[in-house]
Amino acid sequence: MKAPAKITLIAASALVLIGGAYAWHHQQEANRIPDGIIYGNGRLEFTRVDVAVKYPGRIISLTAHEGDTVAAGQVLAQEDTGTVLAQRAQAQAQLDRAGSSAQRAMAELTARQSALRLAQDELRHAQTMRRQNLISDMEVTQRRTQVETSQSAVAATTAAVQEAQHAQAGATAQVQQIQSILDDMTIHAPVAGRIEYRVVETGSVLAPGGRVYAMLDPVDPYMTLFFPTKAISGLKTGDEARIKFDGLDQPVAATVSFIDTQAQFTPKYVETATEREQLMYRVKLRVTAAEQKRLGSVLKAGMTGNGYIRERQDVAWPTAAQQNGI
What we know:
By secondary structure, the protein is of the alpha+beta class.
């Protein structure tokens, strides 16, 4: 190859290399996240709600499966209530007996009160006759004694009525307590949400507090990110944020809902060793209510992605190329 041709080839190659380097540098600059935007990677999380039994018993039916969406108050499981139903029948019998005792005491009180009024009338009549010297002082004294005796009987019967009424109230409370236990042995969904998994199966015997289901509350999806001290120094709750989930084309609007006050080591899923070696602050990005309504069941626990927080209002959000270039 002649020298001029060789020089021309070398020059052309150099221009190609320079052009490629410039294009690569330009692309890197275009993909760089703008200043004023901090970002980190994480997973979407939901508040987990444990559905548990309040009283011990055997599970005789389960009406929900993993992945089911349930409404607040929906019946999810039923415990065996045979023993408690027998207890309620016994308590109801005691209530009926207490009611009968209270009615009998009231009837006796009415009779005692009538006897007292009669004794008082006889005493007044005797006193009138004594003033007319028609009877002796002894007969007046006897009538007065009858009044005092009737008054004591009324007082005793009144106490018996109160005792019977208290017994009736206690029996009523016992029935209501057992009915409350029966109601609690029908397991309802505490909130609207999605069943993450069933902990037990039909026939399992659970102790008090035994878990039946684990639910995810879809009302409060959030992503946890970790940032060093320098990055969070200007952050505050309520700041605007965006979450770009893997597999979704459009970013999801969010806000900063929590900033930890104490530094900690970052978890393993923060990718770089340098980041894992630093003490970081935990920050939560909560998906806005409007986005929750728009996306519905598209948002799922465990979805991965990047979260972006805008530190200044004059900074534009990252473009799709910048988001994908991380």
